[in-house]
């Protein structure tokens, strides 16, 4: 009777550990997703600034003789 109860207890403990690890992975994935969104926004802002600077440079180049 001892071995079946031990097997059930270890199985439950294993599932509990997997559940905790799954929650930790989920939280880290959410955090990584937020960081990727912030990085994408910064890249977009830098691309817009570069486009604005290139437009200004092109206008200046046209006015030169």
Topology:
Layout: H1 2-63
Descriptive account of the structure:
The chain is an all-alpha fold and 65 residues long. It is 95% helix and 0% strand. It contains one helix and no strands. The longest helix is centred in the middle third of the chain and has 62 residues, at 2-63. The model has no long low-confidence stretch (mean pLDDT 92). It comes from Streptomyces omiyaensis.
Output the radius of gyration.
Answer: 28 Å
Number of strands: 0
Give the integer mean of the pLDDT values.
92
State the major sheet.
none
Strand content: under 5%
Principal-axes geometry comes out as rod-shaped
Structural class determined from secondary elements: mainly alpha
End-to-end Cα distance, whole Å, is: 97 Å
**Order of helices and strands, N to C?**
H
What portion of residues is helical? Answer: over 70%
Protein name: Secreted protein
Organism: Streptomyces omiyaensis
Task: Give the key terms.
65 residues, mainly alpha, 95% helix, 0% strand
């Amino acid at each position: 009777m001892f071995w079946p109860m031990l097997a059930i207890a270890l199985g439950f403990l294993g599932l509990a550990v997997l559940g905790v690890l799954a929650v930790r992975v989920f939280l880290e994935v959410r955090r990584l997703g937020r960081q990727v969104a912030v990085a994408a926004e910064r890249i977009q802002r830098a691309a817009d600034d570069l486009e604005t600077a290139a437009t200004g440079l092109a206008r200046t180049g046209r006015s030169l003789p």
